[in-house]
Design brief:
The complex is a heterodimer of chains A (113) and B (113). In chain A, 0% of the residues lie in helices and 61% in strands. Chain A is mainly beta. The radius of gyration of chain A is 14 Å and the shape is globular. Chain B is mainly β. In chain B, the strands form two sheets. In chain B, strands 2, 4, 5, 6, 9, 10 and 11 form a seven-stranded mixed β-sheet that branches. A four-stranded antiparallel β-sheet of chain B has the order 1-3-8-7, with no helix packed on it. Chain B is globular and about 35 Å long. The chains are: A mainly beta (113), B mainly beta (113). The interface between A and B is medium-sized, with 25 and 26 residues.
Chain lengths: 113, 113
Protein backbone atom coordinates (compact mmCIF):
# COMPACT_ATOMS: atom_id res chain seq x y z
CA UNK A 1 0.00 0.00 0.00
CA UNK A 2 0.94 3.60 -0.21
CA UNK A 3 1.52 5.35 3.06
CA UNK A 4 3.84 8.01 4.37
CA UNK A 5 3.98 8.65 8.09
CA UNK A 6 5.60 11.38 10.11
CA UNK A 7 5.20 12.74 13.59
CA UNK A 8 2.90 15.75 13.81
CA UNK A 9 4.83 18.12 16.01
CA UNK A 10 8.41 19.06 16.90
CA UNK A 11 9.59 21.85 19.17
CA UNK A 12 13.22 23.00 19.23
CA UNK A 13 15.23 25.83 20.67
CA UNK A 14 16.68 28.42 18.34
CA UNK A 15 20.22 27.45 17.36
CA UNK A 16 19.72 23.75 18.00
CA UNK A 17 19.42 21.13 15.27
CA UNK A 18 16.00 19.84 14.23
CA UNK A 19 15.46 16.32 12.98
CA UNK A 20 12.19 15.46 11.29
CA UNK A 21 11.57 11.80 10.57
CA UNK A 22 9.41 10.03 8.03
CA UNK A 23 8.67 6.45 7.05
CA UNK A 24 7.24 5.30 3.74
CA UNK A 25 5.95 2.01 2.43
CA UNK A 26 6.49 1.91 -1.33
CA UNK A 27 9.90 0.31 -1.82
CA UNK A 28 9.86 1.19 -5.52
CA UNK A 29 9.87 4.95 -4.85
CA UNK A 30 12.60 6.58 -6.89
CA UNK A 31 12.45 10.04 -5.36
CA UNK A 32 11.67 11.24 -1.87
CA UNK A 33 11.01 14.84 -1.04
CA UNK A 34 10.81 17.39 1.70
CA UNK A 35 8.43 20.29 1.24
CA UNK A 36 8.04 23.31 3.50
CA UNK A 37 4.78 25.15 4.03
CA UNK A 38 4.74 28.46 5.87
CA UNK A 39 1.46 29.73 7.33
CA UNK A 40 -1.02 30.66 4.61
CA UNK A 41 1.42 29.81 1.85
CA UNK A 42 1.83 27.09 -0.74
CA UNK A 43 4.32 24.27 -0.75
CA UNK A 44 7.95 25.02 -1.34
CA UNK A 45 10.22 22.19 -2.47
CA UNK A 46 13.10 22.17 0.00
CA UNK A 47 15.08 19.23 -1.25
CA UNK A 48 14.76 15.77 -2.67
CA UNK A 49 16.86 12.64 -2.72
CA UNK A 50 17.12 9.92 -5.29
CA UNK A 51 16.64 6.42 -3.98
CA UNK A 52 20.18 5.30 -4.82
CA UNK A 53 21.63 7.89 -2.45
CA UNK A 54 22.09 7.60 1.30
CA UNK A 55 22.64 11.24 2.07
CA UNK A 56 22.27 14.65 0.53
CA UNK A 57 23.48 17.89 2.02
CA UNK A 58 22.44 21.37 1.00
CA UNK A 59 23.68 24.17 3.25
CA UNK A 60 21.87 23.75 6.58
CA UNK A 61 19.80 20.83 5.35
CA UNK A 62 20.87 17.19 5.50
CA UNK A 63 18.67 14.41 4.17
CA UNK A 64 19.35 10.83 5.23
CA UNK A 65 17.75 7.89 3.51
CA UNK A 66 17.70 4.37 4.92
CA UNK A 67 16.19 2.39 2.10
CA UNK A 68 16.25 -0.89 3.99
CA UNK A 69 14.10 0.55 6.78
CA UNK A 70 12.20 2.92 4.42
CA UNK A 71 13.12 5.80 6.65
CA UNK A 72 13.82 9.35 5.58
CA UNK A 73 14.97 12.19 7.80
CA UNK A 74 15.57 15.90 7.43
CA UNK A 75 18.07 17.60 9.68
CA UNK A 76 18.11 21.39 9.90
CA UNK A 77 21.27 22.71 11.48
CA UNK A 78 21.25 25.93 13.53
CA UNK A 79 17.45 26.15 13.45
CA UNK A 80 16.10 29.68 13.19
CA UNK A 81 12.67 31.18 13.89
CA UNK A 82 12.21 31.50 10.14
CA UNK A 83 12.31 27.71 9.94
CA UNK A 84 9.00 27.49 11.82
CA UNK A 85 6.64 25.85 9.35
CA UNK A 86 5.02 22.55 8.47
CA UNK A 87 7.36 20.09 6.78
CA UNK A 88 5.93 17.44 4.51
CA UNK A 89 7.66 14.26 3.53
CA UNK A 90 6.54 12.87 0.18
CA UNK A 91 7.37 9.94 -2.01
CA UNK A 92 7.12 9.74 -5.77
CA UNK A 93 4.59 7.09 -6.63
CA UNK A 94 4.82 6.10 -10.23
CA UNK A 95 2.94 3.50 -12.17
CA UNK A 96 2.40 3.16 -15.90
CA UNK A 97 0.63 6.30 -17.09
CA UNK A 98 0.00 7.47 -13.57
CA UNK A 99 2.15 9.27 -11.10
CA UNK A 100 1.59 11.32 -8.01
CA UNK A 101 3.22 12.51 -4.86
CA UNK A 102 2.11 10.72 -1.71
CA UNK A 103 2.37 13.06 1.23
CA UNK A 104 2.69 12.52 4.91
CA UNK A 105 0.41 14.51 7.22
CA UNK A 106 3.15 17.05 7.90
CA UNK A 107 5.32 17.86 10.92
CA UNK A 108 4.78 21.23 12.50
CA UNK A 109 8.14 22.64 13.59
CA UNK A 110 8.01 25.27 16.32
CA UNK A 111 11.23 27.16 17.06
CA UNK A 112 11.39 28.97 20.37
CA UNK A 113 14.04 31.31 21.83
CA UNK B 1 7.71 33.15 -15.58
CA UNK B 2 4.80 33.39 -13.21
CA UNK B 3 5.00 29.64 -12.55
CA UNK B 4 1.74 28.10 -11.35
CA UNK B 5 -1.02 30.54 -10.55
CA UNK B 6 -4.35 29.87 -8.88
CA UNK B 7 -7.48 31.96 -8.47
CA UNK B 8 -9.26 32.81 -6.31
CA UNK B 9 -7.14 32.77 -3.18
CA UNK B 10 -10.17 32.47 -0.90
CA UNK B 11 -13.77 31.46 -1.55
CA UNK B 12 -16.86 30.86 0.56
CA UNK B 13 -19.71 28.84 -0.95
CA UNK B 14 -23.07 27.72 0.26
CA UNK B 15 -23.97 24.03 0.09
CA UNK B 16 -25.24 23.17 -3.39
CA UNK B 17 -23.54 26.03 -5.18
CA UNK B 18 -21.08 25.44 -7.97
CA UNK B 19 -17.81 27.10 -8.82
CA UNK B 20 -14.60 26.68 -10.75
CA UNK B 21 -11.12 26.93 -9.29
CA UNK B 22 -8.67 28.21 -11.86
CA UNK B 23 -5.14 26.99 -12.38
CA UNK B 24 -2.67 28.12 -15.01
CA UNK B 25 1.01 27.56 -15.71
CA UNK B 26 3.30 29.29 -18.16
CA UNK B 27 6.09 26.73 -18.23
CA UNK B 28 4.64 24.63 -21.08
CA UNK B 29 4.28 21.70 -18.70
CA UNK B 30 2.43 18.65 -19.93
CA UNK B 31 1.45 17.29 -16.53
CA UNK B 32 -0.94 19.09 -14.20
CA UNK B 33 -2.75 17.92 -11.13
CA UNK B 34 -5.05 19.01 -8.32
CA UNK B 35 -4.56 18.13 -4.65
CA UNK B 36 -6.59 18.94 -1.60
CA UNK B 37 -5.04 19.52 1.80
CA UNK B 38 -6.91 18.67 4.96
CA UNK B 39 -5.57 18.96 8.52
CA UNK B 40 -3.65 15.89 9.63
CA UNK B 41 -3.99 14.23 6.22
CA UNK B 42 -1.32 15.75 4.04
CA UNK B 43 -2.27 16.29 0.40
CA UNK B 44 -4.44 13.94 -1.63
CA UNK B 45 -4.66 13.77 -5.40
CA UNK B 46 -8.04 14.67 -6.88
CA UNK B 47 -7.51 14.64 -10.67
CA UNK B 48 -4.58 14.86 -13.01
CA UNK B 49 -3.86 15.48 -16.68
CA UNK B 50 -0.95 14.20 -18.75
CA UNK B 51 -1.62 16.62 -21.60
CA UNK B 52 -4.24 18.71 -23.34
CA UNK B 53 -7.41 16.72 -23.84
CA UNK B 54 -6.41 13.96 -21.40
CA UNK B 55 -7.57 13.78 -17.79
CA UNK B 56 -7.93 11.04 -15.23
CA UNK B 57 -9.01 10.49 -11.65
CA UNK B 58 -6.76 10.52 -8.64
CA UNK B 59 -7.58 9.07 -5.25
CA UNK B 60 -10.42 11.41 -4.19
CA UNK B 61 -12.22 12.46 -7.42
CA UNK B 62 -15.86 12.35 -6.27
CA UNK B 63 -17.61 15.70 -6.43
CA UNK B 64 -15.07 17.26 -8.78
CA UNK B 65 -14.75 17.60 -12.55
CA UNK B 66 -11.80 18.72 -14.63
CA UNK B 67 -11.02 19.47 -18.25
CA UNK B 68 -7.83 20.35 -20.10
CA UNK B 69 -8.58 22.19 -23.32
CA UNK B 70 -5.18 23.93 -23.41
CA UNK B 71 -1.72 23.09 -22.13
CA UNK B 72 -1.73 26.12 -19.85
CA UNK B 73 -5.04 25.76 -18.00
CA UNK B 74 -6.48 23.07 -15.77
CA UNK B 75 -9.67 24.22 -14.03
CA UNK B 76 -11.31 22.26 -11.24
CA UNK B 77 -15.10 22.36 -11.02
CA UNK B 78 -17.26 21.74 -8.01
CA UNK B 79 -20.77 21.04 -9.29
CA UNK B 80 -22.70 20.77 -6.01
CA UNK B 81 -20.53 22.02 -3.20
CA UNK B 82 -20.71 20.15 0.11
CA UNK B 83 -19.22 21.00 3.52
CA UNK B 84 -16.90 17.99 3.13
CA UNK B 85 -15.20 19.91 0.32
CA UNK B 86 -14.02 22.59 2.70
CA UNK B 87 -10.28 22.40 2.19
CA UNK B 88 -7.23 24.06 0.72
CA UNK B 89 -6.75 23.18 -2.93
CA UNK B 90 -3.37 23.10 -4.62
CA UNK B 91 -2.64 22.87 -8.30
CA UNK B 92 0.71 21.44 -9.39
CA UNK B 93 2.51 20.98 -12.67
CA UNK B 94 5.56 19.21 -13.99
CA UNK B 95 7.27 19.07 -17.36
CA UNK B 96 6.06 15.58 -18.17
CA UNK B 97 4.16 12.79 -16.48
CA UNK B 98 7.43 11.18 -15.45
CA UNK B 99 9.18 14.34 -14.25
CA UNK B 100 10.09 14.10 -10.62
CA UNK B 101 9.94 17.81 -9.84
CA UNK B 102 6.51 19.30 -9.34
CA UNK B 103 5.74 22.97 -8.93
CA UNK B 104 2.87 23.99 -6.70
CA UNK B 105 0.58 26.97 -6.90
CA UNK B 106 -0.16 29.13 -3.84
CA UNK B 107 -3.44 27.38 -3.07
CA UNK B 108 -7.15 28.26 -2.86
CA UNK B 109 -8.80 28.15 0.55
CA UNK B 110 -12.42 27.05 0.10
CA UNK B 111 -15.09 27.04 2.78
CA UNK B 112 -18.48 25.47 2.15
CA UNK B 113 -21.15 26.39 4.67
Amino acid sequence: GEDVEQSLFLSVREGDSSVINCTYTDSSSTYLYWYKQEPGAGLQLLTYIFSNMDMKQDQRLTVLLNKKDKHLSLRIADTQTGDSAIYFCAEWYRREGYNKLIFGAGTRLAVHP
Amino acid sequence: NAGVTQTPKFQVLKTGQSMTLQCAQDMNHEYMSWYRQDPGMGLRLIHYSVGAGITDQGEVPNGYNVSRSTTEDFPLRLLLAAPSQTSVYFCASSATSISYEQYFGPGTRLTVT
